[in-house]
Amino acid sequence: MAIGEDLVVDHWIRSQIAKIHQTPGLSEKLKKSFELIDTKNQGLVELADFYMVLYKNIPGLSVEDVHKFSRVAEKDVEQRVKYYEFLAFLDSNAELDGETSSKASESTKNITQYLVKYMK
């Protein structure tokens, strides 16, 4: 993947994570769906099962979108998705997105205050 593609995927992933966290109960629904499939309680699901869970549970997700999520999902040597790590990734990035937004709004506020003082 080219560097530009990484940035596009990163932006896309962040926007999808924001949507997931704006949908009440979706994170828990994903977790329960993964756990139902993981009958051995290993924290692992086959890639096809990972695709199915995301596609069925996240509204408006296309097959290509599911493939993008699979690129960031941590896998074991047998290419099974470590879904607890994936869910943790979703949670940690949601927190980072919130921090980034609050820092950005603080910066905007500071710039606005500076411009108001400058304009007087």
Features:
Recoverin, domain 1; 120 residues
Structural overview:
With 120 residues, the protein is mainly α. The protein is 75% helix and 3% strand. The chain has a two-stranded antiparallel ribbon with strand order 1-2. The N and C termini lie far apart (50 Å). The N terminus is likely disordered.
Question: What proportion strand?
Answer: under 5%
Number of structurally distinct domains? 1
Counting helices, strands and paired strands, the structural category is mainly alpha
Query: Based on DSSP secondary structure assignment, what is the total number of beta strands?
Result: 2
Which of globular, elongated, flat, extended, rod-shaped describes the shape? elongated
Low-pLDDT stretches = 1-8, 96-104
Mind telling me the C-alpha Rg?
Answer: 18 Å
CATH homology superfamily = EF-hand
**CATH top level assignment:** Mainly Alpha
Quote the average pLDDT: 79
CATH fold descriptor: Recoverin, domain 1
**Count of helical stretches:** 5
Q: How many angstroms does the end-to-end distance come to?
A: 50 Å
Question: Helicity, in percent?
Answer: over 70%
